[in-house]
Amino acid sequence: MDTMYYQSQTLVDVAYKALKKDITEKVLLPGQKVIIRELHERYGISETPIKQALNRLITEGLVESIPRRGVKVRELKWEDIEELFDIRLMIEMNYVKQILQNFKKDLGIQQKFTANLREHMEIVENAVDLNDYFRNYYLDQEFHQLFVKSSGCKRIMQIYNHLGTHDYAYHIYRRQTREETIAGVKEHEAIYNALVSQDEAELRRCVEVHIINAKNKINKNLAKGQPL
Fold first, then answer.
1. Phi, psi at residue 75, to the nearest 5°?
2. pLDDT tier, 218 (very low <50, low <70, confident <90, very high otherwise)
3. Which domain CATH number covers 61?
4. Cβ burial, residue 178 (10 Å; 0-12/13-18/19+)
5. What Pfam families does the record tag this protein with (predicted)?
6. Are 160 and 148 in contact (CB under 8 A)?
7. Residue 226 located in a structural domain
8. Parent domain of 57
9. Residues 82, 69 share a domain
10. Is the pLDDT of residue 2 over 70?
């Protein structure tokens, strides 16, 4: 492990990022039981920060704790993903009018959208390693959080953040082409342009197209009948 890279981070942060890396690169496979003692030996980190990092990943939905069976890497199945994306579409479409109104009068949220899009396109066009992939994942999630946050409804934001529709991203690393990833960011740009033009019909169309395309890309990259 590169100790220089982790000097400014806590041991929990180190364990958290190491676990995410191992899940993404299939060192830890979907459905595999997580043995804390083995992680301690692998990472050279004591068990307490590893347990804390696992708790963070449980909250994010990447791993799950099963009573009397321990902790394992979460298996994501197509039926679960499809259901979650349908709920996400319902939420985003339901608040379109409020989102348009609040976006128009909130300069701060407009600036956050543009900053997100600018960095996201730069990342996907020039990505070279796993850290860039993680950043791509974060920016994709941030865009949709900004969109729903623009509704002004705090409770729906809490519900949205717990859907877990971005958890799949760690399981399709290297299965999606760069062109597909760039196309996804361009769909974000189309959503933003509809917000700027205050075109409700176009915004609804762009949101629906984006979520349907995301579902289709996941389905294509998912082996038939197998978990991610």
1. -95, 125
2. confident
3. 1.10.10.10
4. exposed
5. FCD, GntR
6. yes
7. no
8. 11-73
9. no
10. no
